[in-house]
Specification:
The complex is a heterodimer of chains A (255) and B (683). Chain A has 255 residues and is mainly alpha-helical. Chain A has six helices and four strands; from the N terminus they run αααββαβααβ. The relative contact order of chain B is 0.08. Chain B is mainly β. The two termini of chain B are 14 Å apart. Classes of the chains: A mainly alpha (255), B mainly beta (683). Chain B: Its main location: other.
């Protein structure tokens, strides 16, 4: 009874029974092994014996070596770089072709080449530990590369070019619009005209409003009602027009 | 305003589920031959529901309530007929089941389509017009044209009520009604149908349903009558053969019949009985000619013991050959039966329900009010003629039902703590109900008789937990009620111990405020619990001070106000809706009209609700559209199309997940609350 007394509508909200989450089913870790090792036709004849198979005819007897596997023919082994290989260096006792012999003094030319050559610039490195771990300096960013660039701090050329193009396009467009206006394709309402229209509309509204305010309090007959409704509609229309003109500063008149 | 002018551009609300079924339509509940779907009418729509997934598809196309429904034997087509106003033509629509789309619209009958039947090979559709039309028309399904028509009965006979096609022959069908029972033969070449009246002898009956059984060795058909017996007629001779059951007739008439493969008949009776009838040969010893006579025997019988008032079984739909069958009743309940259990011995211990499971309950009358418990989206309480129901919104199931016979509950409210459901009734009583965990009904807490003289029409509840200042109301639960005569009364719920020492409740009238001249249609209390607004059909809305119990402000308009709602910052405005189709924003302090929007193109606005954050307003009315407005812009953001009758109430759920709207056809529509957060950014 006490329970019933305290029951509220919120007790009626169905409670979803929490489903017990079952642990995943046990699977043996040898499952895959067993699967691989098991062949399904292993015990086929265990209960029924072998199937009765028709015996081979007498001319189709078992022949020597017929059960051996047939192997493919042997192939000659070739190295994979066979085609790229250069011919071997000539032997000491090989005779040059047609007795041709060079007069170039390799020793002196090598010596001259080395003496005259520009020494190689050492690679720029930096060392960051006392143990002397070396790293190349160029990709490290420690050297001021970009600030030393010739055109550092200048506006990129493509930007100035683009700006010029834009300016030119704008000028062209302005010229076109001016041309268009000059031809009188679209006339814009001047400020005075706009003011005049607005003033006129407002005046009209005021006149109707004056009349409306002067209407009798009781609208008992159909003509009165009609008159009132007509005035309301007119005023609403005027309000809409005034709002439309006030909202837009520049008004174009299409022909 | 641009949106309201062109509602086509407005995005649609997504319909989640519909809870509704029109059980009054004879044989309205059907099971599709594919065994996966049930089909039933709801207002002017036809609903196809998947049995396992409960997914619903809606066939929209009728302009008025659906009056009959049939499925072709192959399951490819559905056909539905409607009612319409006197003098107008009523449509028959053939639907393509797989495409769930309109296949053909057949217009010839007037006012009402009484019944429809497909021929066994889907070649023809026969339609029977209502009382004012009384003609039979045969249509060619493939060419979508009428073949021929004929007067349904002879001049001297009464109305024809039902129609059934032969199970094997595409050219034979039967019609039956008040004093008429005819077998028709179709001649396709000559485009003619020829009727043969069944020879009934002295017997006079009103046939309400016909079941064919001509695929058996001896071709018969069975007719259920209003007198509660079943007539068997031989198809070959067209002679009346037998009548039964001799004793224990079905009270309130046989409403529907269904034949099972085994040759047994399932009978749905007007008093809610579902019976299994068997027939057998009996040799009467006393009679002179020892001829066998076919007799009926009621083998099994079932009634819903849980509902006190029985309502007619209007349809039985067999799933497959009848291993399972669905039963629809006039009070919009759907039961699923397992035939094996139904056929088994009905011992009260082992088999108390006889295989019946209540799968669907719906409102059968117009829903007057819905309410969410405070801050709870999982439950709603609804009010209709005779009933209050509490629904579980998650599973769309009914949890509790309280029946008060022959009275309409106009309005309903739930106290803040959820312990009491307070309802306003047509007989001028306010009834308060508690909640019981064990019983399916609601235990009564108090009844305030003569609360209002012309019925209580609106009610609202508030709970004060503490006094804000010295003049404030005492802590407790207060009820504000409005009546048909226009009075607004404030009551306090008081607890006392009766002479047996039990806790009891009563209402103590604090004040009566007599200002309204017409019926009070809606009451809303503001969030600070110190004032309330009442709308009335006399064209006024009054804002009352609940502490001083005086009128604060009044709002006039040339309309019948139907709904009112607080809105704006700290409830500084009210929104009203009424028969002038305008959505009015009014200032609470001065009572001035701030804004009026055209809320609907046609018909009154019956329901207004505002979202918890106050940014969105939902409205519904006689134009059957649910509209979601942004409060500040006054623009329609979303439109919900789906109601087939005027919307009576609409509510946004407190958590902002769903919108629930209810209609005069008893349907509860659950809409997904749209993702308006993003929508809002665009403005």
């Amino acid at each position: 009874m006490m329970m019933q007394e305290e029951a509220t509508i919120y007790n009626l909200i169905p409670v979803e029974e929490e489903k017990k989450v079952k642990p995943p089913r046990y699977t043996s870790k040898f499952r895959d092994n067993v699967k691989d090792e098991y062949t399904s036709d292993r015990h086929d004849h265990k209960t029924m014996g072998y199937a009765k198979v028709p015996v081979d005819t007498t001319d189709n007897f078992l022949k020597k070596r017929s059960k051996e596997p047939i192997l493919p023919d042997k192939l000659k082994y070739t190295y994979p770089d066979e085609e790229r290989k250069r011919p071997p260096v000539p032997k000491k006792d090989d005779k040059p072709l047609m007795g041709l012999k060079t007069t170039k003094n390799f020793i002196t030319t090598n010596a001259v080449q080395n003496i005259t050559s520009v020494p190689r610039q050492p690679q720029k490195i930096f060392v960051d530990t006392k143990k002397g771990d070396k790293h190349p300096l160029d990709p490290s960013g420690l050297e001021p590369v970009y600030t030393k660039k010739k055109d550092f701090g200048e506006t990129p050329k493509y930007l100035t070019k683009r700006k010029e193009e834009m300016q030119r396009a704008q000028e062209e467009y302005n010229a076109y619009v001016a041309e268009h206006f000059r031809r009188g394709a679209m006339r814009s309402l001047t400020a005075e005209e706009r003011e005049a229209i607005l003033r006129g509309l407002k005046q009209n509204w005021e006149e109707i409003h004056d009349q409306y305010q002067g209407l009798s309090v009781v609208t008992d007959t159909a003509p009165k009602k009609n008159r009132k409704e007509r005035m309301e509609a007119e005023m609403k229309q005027l309000e809409r027009d005034i709002e439309a003109i006030e909202k837009h500063k520049v008004i174009y008149i299409a022909n | 305003m641009a949106e309201t002018d062109a509602p086509i551009d407005v995005p649609r609300l997504e319909l989640e589920t519909v809870i509704g079924f029109n059980g009054v339509v004879p044989n309205g509940l059907r099971v599709h031959p594919g065994k996966q779907h049930i089909i039933y009418p709801l207002g002017c729509t036809v609903v196809i529901e998947n049995i396992s997934t409960r997914k619903q598809d809606f066939l929209w196309g009728h302009t008025n309530n659906v009056s009959c429904l049939t499925v072709s034997p192959s399951g490819r087509f559905l056909a539905s007929g409607q009612v319409t106003y006197m003098g107008f033509k009523a449509d028959i629509i053939i639907w393509d089941f797989d495409a769930k789309a309109l296949y053909a619209r057949l217009v010839l009958h007037k006012v009402k389509i009484q019944d429809l039947a497909f021929s066994p090979n889907d070649l023809y559709l026969v339609s029977l017009g209502g009382q004012d039309d009384s003609s039979v028309v045969v249509w060619d399904v493939h060419s979508k044209e009428a073949i021929c028509g004929h007067q349904a009965q002879v001049e001297s006979a009464g109305t024809t009520y039902c129609l059934a096609y032969s199970n094997i022959n595409d050219n034979v069908f039967v019609t039956g009604g008040d004093g008429t029972l005819r077998v028709w033969e179709l001649n396709r070449e000559d485009r003619k149908i020829r009727a043969t009246d069944v020879t009934m002898g002295q017997l006079k009956r009103v046939v309400k349903c016909i079941q064919m059984a001509d695929n058996f060795s001896e071709p018969f058909f069975f007719c259920g009558t209003t007198t509660g017996d079943i007539i068997g007629v031989n198809m070959n001779t067209k002679f009346f053969q037998f009548l039964g059951p001799e004793k224990e007739k079905f009270s309130l008439g046989v409403e529907t019949l269904a034949l099972i493969k085994s040759g047994q008949l399932l009978v749905g009776a007007g008093d809610g009985e579902v019976a299994l009838v068997q027939f057998f040969n009996k040799v009467d010893k006393d009679s002179k000619n020892k001829k066998a006579k076919i007799c009926f025997e009621k083998k099994r019988s079932w009634r819903d013991k849980k509902t006190k008032k029985q309502s007619a079984v209007t349809s039985i739909g067999l799933r497959g050959d009848g291993h399972q069958f669905y039963v629809g009743s006039a009070n919009s309940q759907i039961y699923r039966f397992n035939f094996a259990e139904f056929n088994a011995d009905p011992s009260p211990k082992l088999n108390p329900n006889q295989g019946a499971v209540l799968v669907k309950t719906c409102h059968s009358n117009d829903i007057k009010d819905i309410v969410f418990p405070f801050g709870c989206s999982e439950l709603i309480a609804t009010a209709q003629y005779q009933e209050i129901r509490i629904w579980d919104m998650k599973n769309k199931m009914e949890l509790r039902r309280q029946v008060v016979p022959n009275m309409t509950c106009n309005s309903i409210a739930i106290t803040r703590d959820g312990s009491m459901v307070i309802s306003a009734w047509e007989d001028g009583k306010i009834r308060g109900y508690g909640i019981s965990m064990s019983s399916p009904t609601l235990p009564e807490r108090f009844v305030q008789t003569e609360a209002h003289s012309k019925g209580v029409t609106a009610i609202a509840v508030m709970t004060k937990t503490s006094k804000c200042n010295a003049n404030d109301l005492e802590p407790g639960t207060y009820i504000v009620s409005g009546g048909g005569e226009g009075q607004v009364r404030i009551w306090k719920v008081e607890k006392f111990y009766d002479n047996k020492g039990k806790d009891s409740y009563k209402l103590n009238l604090l004040h009566t405020m007599m200002e309204h001249k017409g019926q009070v249609s809606d009451i809303k209390i503001n969030s600070a619990d110190n004032e309330c607004v009442t709308s009335s059909t006399d064209g006024t809305c009054i804002i009352w001070d609940l502490v001083k119990q005086t009128r604060k402000q009044i709002v006039f308009s040339n309309t019948l106000f139907k709904a009112v709602c607080y809105g704006g910052y700290q409830d500084c405005q009210i929104i009203t809706g009424g028969t002038d189709r305008k959505l009015g924003y009014w200032e609470v302090l001065e009572g001035k009209l701030i804004r009026d929007l055209e809320g609907a193109k046609s018909g009154s606005i019956n329901a207004i609700d505002i979202s918890r954050d106050g940014n969105f307003v939902v409205t519904g009315g006689d134009e059957k559209l649910l509209k979601l407005w942004s409060y500040n812009e006054g623009a329609v953001l979303f439109i919900g199309i789906g109601h087939s009758a005027p919307i009576t109430k609409a509510k946004i759920c407190p958590r902002g997940q769903t919108i629930i709207s209810v209609g005069a056809d008893g349907a509860i529509l659950i809409w997904k609350y749209p993702d308006v957060g993003c929508q809002q950014l665009q403005y």
